[in-house]
Amino acid sequence: MKCYVGIDLGSTTSKAVVLDSAGEVLGRGITNSRSNYETATRVSKLEAFTSTRLTLLRRTLAEVSGLENHIDSVVAALENNFRLELALEQLGHLQKNCRLSAEHPQFSKIQESLNKALDEVFRRLEIQMAKLHVPGVERKSDFFRDLAGSEYMLIAEDVAGEMGLDFDALINLYDKSIIDVENTPPADDIEEKFLRALDRAIKEGLDLPVPVEDIAPPIHEALDVELEESYSVGTGYGRVRLPFPKEQIRSEILCHGLGAHLMYPQTRTVLDIGGQDTKSIQVDEDGIVVNFQMNDRCAAGCGRYLGYIADEMNVGVHELGPMAMKSTKNIRINSTCTVFAGAELRDRLAMGDERSDILAGLHRSIILRAMSIISRSGGISDQFTFTGGVAKNEAAVKELRKLVKENYGDVKININPDSIYTGALGAAEFARRDGEAR
Amino acid sequence: MNQNATEEIVKESSMLKQKAMIAENYENLTSAHETGRKVAATFVPGNLNELIMCFDMLNNLPEINAINNGMRKKSGMMVMQAEKMGHSEDVCTYVKADIGSMAKGSIAPNGKPMPPPDLLLLSYTGCFTFMKWFELLRHEYGCETAMLHVPYQGDGVVTENMRQYVVKQLKENIIPAMERVSGVKFDIDRLRENLRRSAQAEDDFVWVMESAKNKRSPIDAYFGGVYYIGPIFTAFRGTEMAVNYYRTLREEIEERIAAGKGPITPDGDMAEEKYRLVVEGPPNWTSFREFWKMFYDEGAVVVASTYTKVGGVYDFGFRHDPDNPLETLADYCLGCYTNRNLRQRTDMLERFVNDYEADGLLINSIKSCNSFSAGQLMLMREIEERTGKPGAFIETDLVDPRYFSAANVKNRLESYFQMIEQKRATAAVA
Prior knowledge:
The structure holds two protein chains of two kinds.
Chain A: E1 2-9, E2 13-19, E3 25-32, H1 37-61, H2 71-102, H3 111-132, H4 144-163, H5 167-182, H6 190-203, H7 212-224, E4 228-235, H8 252-263, E5 269-273, E6 278-283, E7 289-294, H9 303-313, H10 320-325, H11 341-350, H12 355-376, E8 384-387, H13 394-408, E9 413-414, H14 422-437
Parallel strand pairs in A: 1-4, 5-8, 8-9
Antiparallel strand pairs in A: 1-2, 2-3, 5-6, 6-7
Helix pairs in contact in A: 1-2, 1-7, 2-3, 2-5, 2-6, 3-4, 4-5, 6-7, 8-14, 12-13
Chain B: H1 3-11, H2 13-30, H3 32-35, E1 39-41, H4 49-54, E2 58-60, H5 62-71, H6 75-84, H7 93-103, E3 119-124, H8 128-141, E4 144-149, H9 160-182, H10 188-210, H11 225-228, H12 230-233, H13 240-258, E5 264-265, E6 268-269, E7 275-280, H14 288-296, E8 300-305, H15 325-335, H16 342-355, E9 360-366, H17 370-373, H18 376-387, E10 391-396, H19 406-429
Parallel strand pairs in B: 1-2, 1-3, 3-4, 7-8, 7-9, 9-10
Antiparallel strand pairs in B: 5-6
């Protein structure tokens, strides 16, 4: 099966989208960029192909009569067990690396007890991983480093205490070993992993209204489809790091314009507030960019600014919006300078303002800056599509709606739940068009 | 030696000539004390070089010194020095580079100190910063200052009154001041001779710039253009050296056309002409090579630019006229790009986009230039509307390296080039 891939390497996250020949979205994948674009590319693509496989599974399972109301649970079980397979593979790799690291002369005196401790840590980690991959359990992240990292710390502390061993030594081993694990792609057996995931799900007692024999063939059918990466196009800040020839690299402005057009064909103005830039793009009826403006080198008021504020307040970035929504008083914040984000916040707190009010003011000032960039690009024409990480922030959206109404009247504002994939979707569509034309 | 290498040397002869001219000029300037020659400091727009030469004075241009320091990566420290002295972040960075350079001993590229000016000749042609800049210099040097007030073309026309107003000042203020400072009596025939040579060089200069109408263009009229304007915008207009330089340059370009070659770049001849652009605004000097590369790597050639008109607009027929020496100097000053209003600038850009068959207009807006950044977005939209060609906007600075963000500029440029490509593809389908 022909697959067209778009990859958007952003400053914060990297996204991949897979399209089929008809332009239908088959899969989406996302990972943290962590300034390592090679790994980010690989992981986001792997995620997108995994999600593609799940889409195919969904399609074949839909043909099984009697399964109609259980497709979601079957697919969820498969996905969870597939992710567990992936995590266990990486866990094995991590354990091997830790053991190798323990051979370092600095540990010669405690090597034996370290190895024992490692065996115990990884035994418990495996159990913990399995618990994290049970349907219904919400994982904070699907990134191995995030999952393994936090669990390793907790377990290693317990084990070190129980065995009278130096906790720092166990941390040291982990730190030395994790990067290699993170930078090593999973073994090339995605389909086998799905099959093992199926076995595991069945063993755990998959709740099925039909006999297992009925679902095995469609699952095999979906897994047997060969996914051919026919053509790819890359975009985003890290695009030059992609191992693609020049013609397969597109500007993120064009990709966002086209992506927004595909999501909402009536879109004429697109606002994208990403990690370190804010773009306002005007597109025509075919999604072709006719004008754009973006922030200059100063990233004031971009997503990263909210990141700094969250760090300063010691909360998650996703918590800022809900906190700002509790505001009862208007506070005017003039500076959205990322460098002074902390200072601005502390100033306001020192003056006795409430955190929620300060945050609401900060969100408003971000949107005010975006409004200025929008007006420089030619203003807002109906319909208006808001994309990027900040589009997920309810307080930012609230201010945007207010300011759009004040300045441009009644305009239809589109915010797609998958808006973070807009650039990757545009890139994938470019890949599809170029690939089909070849 | 292969044929290409031989050609390369021939092609570079105008460059070598210019390099030698600039080196000689700096030697003359830095030895002015020993030779007893007087120095006039003045600006590129409204530069009265033919007149300055009538008094055996040397012409020192602070903007050019700032550009030189920018290209040699020295301006950053100078700008910061000026900021330390109290000049704010928003002040024109040419000014700050100049002030900072003075604080560091005004060292010329030949390593010798520049002499203090004997005359500050302010030919005021539309940039209000010039006046403040010279006010600061006057405070520093305490030397004689002569101001030629050139009326702004607010209504887009030059009237006889305006012309006579400038001529009157030349007669009554400027020339007497120059006589006083230099001790040389004004000789109008000497001025006529200088002007005759100016006109001669101007003909070849215009021919060279208009060669960009060829498809493919043998020159880059912005990045290459800043070298081509060098002699005619600075201390050489009206000299035999400039006449020779432009003759040589013209011959080189004729050869390039005959050989079907594109513009010369720091990495050799440009391989392919994919995009033809008109550019408004000066280039960034601190990352000049890197900035240029972003264009030629993508096959983008600048076929016309307004920056190559700041020291005189010759495109629409004006030439220095030896038969009307003072009136022609007045016309020259009145017609400088900086002295034209927004509508005139828009008309000029529209003409460039059409006459040079460009794919669109790119504006490089200068962060620290309050004078000319105003109205640029309106100008871009107007050109888009009039020509139907897409515009784009980037932001950099003159000589403050802190304001150049390579990734950001490259991102916008690539988006623009791809936007042009996409528009073409759609037009082809339609």
